[in-house]
Amino acid sequence: MRRKVIGVLVSVLMLITLFATACGTATPTEEAPATEEPEAREFEGETVSVIATWGGDEQESFMAMIAPWEERTGATVEYEGTRDLNAVLNTRVEGGNPPDVAGLPGPAVLQQFAADGHLVDLNTFLDQATLEEQYDDSWLELASFEGGLYGLFTKVAVKSLIWYNPKAFDAAGYAIPESWDELLALSDQIVADGGTPWCIGLESGAASGWPGTDWIEDIVLRTAGAETYDQWRRHEIPWTDDAVRNAWETWGTIVTNEDYLDGGTTGVLATNFGESPYPMFQDPPGCYMHRQATFIEGFITDQFPDLVAQEDYDYFGFPEIDPEYGTPVLSAGDLFGMFNDTPSARSLVEWLASAEAQQIWAERGGFISPNKNVSSDVYPNPLIGQAAGLLTSADVVRFDASDLMPAAVNDAFSGGILNYVENPENLDQILQNIETAAAEAYGE
Amino acid sequence: MRRVRFLPWLYAGPTLLLLAFFLVYPSLDTFRLSLYGPDSEQFVGLQNYVYAFTTGEMWIAFRNNAIWLVLFTFFTVAGGLVIAVLADRVKYEPAAKALIFLPQAISFVGAGVIWKFVYDFDPDIGLLNAILTGLFPNAEPVGWLVNSDVATFALVGTGIWMWTGFAMTILSAAVKDVPEEISEAARIDGANEWQLFWRITVPYIASTIAVVTTTMIINVLKVFDLVYVMTAGRYETNVIANQMYKELYINRQNGRASAIAVILLLAIVPVMLFNIRRFQEQEAMR
Amino acid sequence: MKKLRKTLSKFPLHIVVITIALIWMTPSLGVLINSFRTSQAMKTSGWWTMFATPFNFTQWTLENYATVLATQDLARSFRNSLLISIPATILPILIAAFAAYAFSWMEFPGRQVLFSIVVGLLVVPLQMTFVPIYAAFNKIGITGTFLAIWAAHTGYGLPFAVYLLRNFLGALPKDLFESAWLDGASFWTAFWRLALPLSVPSLASLAIFQFLWVWNDLLVALIYLGGTPSVAPLTVRVANLVNSLGADWHLLPAAAFISMILPLIVFFSMQQYFVRGILAGSVKG
């Protein structure tokens, strides 16, 4: 009887194998376009493989963005989304079979692949003059490496925003602070009134700590200026420099003050960044202010679908700290790189660079298009349009420093943020640790 | 045991060939890379090993793997055994065993969410803090996964929850092989259940206990997914395999990652020797 | 009276077994309940509060399940998972059974050394094998095919399968095989007639776990098979319900339960092979 069992198992195995091979051969016909176009399209039947970290709504937005291109050229995009992008992309590239195009979560990764000679120089087929017309120089510069252009930004975010609940502010009679001192005075006022001024959440899976790196970056820009900021992110000044140290301590006046924080410092560490603004919309408010990028809006409206932009939630710019340096704007974004130089991949990258394509994602919400030809009217609500305007109107715009640093430094930075919130008295040691990681990563 | 010349290679051949390709060849390559720098081009001697044994992160990882080794191995094996033996005596055994087994059927993506609802800092979401603040209204909730003093233990707890079902399933099959006549004879001789357990059951299934223990020790050496999903090695929860992952994919230090992998391979040697001795004994006795 | 005493004496046993089972069940139960609650309720109140307010229907919803089930290509990814898991379960067990048999009942030079290497290979971190194996697969052009993932799971699953089966087969009594050989049975006959039938319980437990590991695997599938809809297994689909910032994780509880159904069916259907006395009397330890 048991022999029978084994016999059955073996035959099941064979059947499965047959079935799978049959399916394997059947798949292409299954996927062939149903409508036969009379005129031959440029890349009929070809596929372009794309890999990125986007899932859920992002994946839907991306698919919507490339749909017109697929329709026009007859090619299919084989999209793979995974948050294990590091492991998967690294293996594919080292193993000699990279995807045609990849969406990369920051310029540092792009620079690395460009330095190793894996990426295609986009200038070989994209017209520089057209690009310069559509993109601010800084976006092109961030995606360049040793004279070549290796990436294209398609969706970006503005980070120097402090979100608040206008109705709660009105009810308590609070005014929007114009400077860091006013911000701290307001925080004290809220505490005196029996409230909690801040909601901060640093938990974000393997990337936990990054919201804190954004705070530090905004503060460095406002206390030491853009020039020092650039030196810092290029590791031309050490992490133990007073300018950097001062920024951590400045942030410390908020993030180590138990009275200021919803849930105290443990709450800051334990709360997921996306859920951390929720208490702002409770009655009475669990907190009054939340510093986060434009993309936090999606988290707020998912949880509270009835809230109306500008009435129930709004933001003000991160205020100035030192009048000398004003209010620079911090930005961040994802960019595309191209690994295989094929005509269909070129065509796809050209499409992704266009205002027409980027408008599709912009309209669906969540992100800002860096292409100047995308009007700020296309965003689903005025808040995001306004933020898009900030990118062009601000005197100083700087890209998220941690995303520009080598991954090892970024990782040490965000880990250091968590250490600092847990044990602020260890600041010297924490900065020294990041400095060690940085010295190594820059090969010093 | 019969001596034959070619037949063994025919039977074991496919396995040996597959292992040579999938595991031996990459391991040899790993060993070679461990002597090279981050870009795998420059020979650096034992430098990567010196790094692995001197950096602070690795010592945290060694300490944590030791904690895992003691707590995780003990509780999964002992727990699995106790449940296997006890469940054997109740009528609702399949249901009870299914509940213990359940966590093995959950993917890591699911397990992360499950434990969020247990460990969350907010007593309105995390069960443990809800119980804590419910029983002791003056108690402060604990940040189970963000407090360096407790986070590793919280992870070990999750590990035990996931793997006890494995130990139980394997041990349960062995417990059921203990011949009824032997236990009956012992009972008639006046042995109580406790003595029965220690003098009959445990010796009878000793080899299965050894197998399960070996598997759990290997699990401890390789523990990664759980740590990566829940804390990513922050808050002093780092483990050897997580540090290897970090060196490989984040720091892009191929040489160091390889050296750490080789250290893992060396750490298994005592377990290998123990198993050889055990199998030799088994063959002498059968 | 005697019966009552027996029941009473068993009372602590029941308490212990039921308590352990309940503790083990609680985390999963919490997620099961939450999978039927709205995203808003899940993120603001504990699942246990539903015991106090079970009739507050604003918290209940089937939407999480509806959203997950409506995911594009879900049925296809379920089929892919099956296509991956079944061969990737049977192949390594079958191949390993032959090897375990040779290791336990045939004398050949290097036997112990080879076997100890097999045990040692259990600890090889998979990440270190990805690049060389992927490069080799790429050369022969099988990356992104089911063949690649079957081969990979077979290779990675063999050490444990050989180890477990060797332990079991090696423990079978010598007399059994020696009398078979005296009767003129070949190794081949003894393998199919004696070794395999007697090791059904260990084959069954091995099958359960190998199936589960493959079914729940995400990384190996992503590396060798990729995430394109035509081949992606369920785990890849489920992971992609959440976006890169972690939004929409409220769908994961429902998704976790949907992907758990099949492994649980496998577990229950294999239970019948764990019955008492399959070997009783015929085998000593």
Give a quick set of tags describing it.
heterotrimer; B: 286 residues; mainly alpha; MetI-like fold; 73% helix; flat; C: 285 residues; 14 helices; 71% helix; 1% strand; disordered C terminus
Explain the overall architecture.
The complex is a heterotrimer of chains A (444), B (286) and C (285). With 444 residues, chain A is of the alpha/beta class. Chain A has 19 helices and 11 strands. Chain A folds into 2 domains: 44-158 and 332-395, Periplasmic binding protein-like II (D-Maltodextrin-Binding Protein, domain 2, 3-Layer(aba) Sandwich), CATH 3.40.190.10; 161-327 and 405-441, Periplasmic binding protein-like II (D-Maltodextrin-Binding Protein, domain 2, 3-Layer(aba) Sandwich), CATH 3.40.190.10. In chain A, the strands form 3 sheets. In chain A, strands 1, 2, 3, 6, 10 and 11 form a 6-stranded mixed β-sheet that branches. Chain B contains 14 helices and 1 strand. In chain B, helix 3 runs parallel beside helix 7 (151-175) and helix 4 (93-101) runs antiparallel to helix 7. Chain C is an all-alpha fold. Chain C has 14 helices and 1 strand; from the N terminus they run αααααβααααααααα. Chain C is flat and about 75 Å long. Chain C folds into 2 domains: 11-61, no CATH class; 72-274, MetI-like (MetI-like fold). Chains in contact: A-B, A-C, B-C.
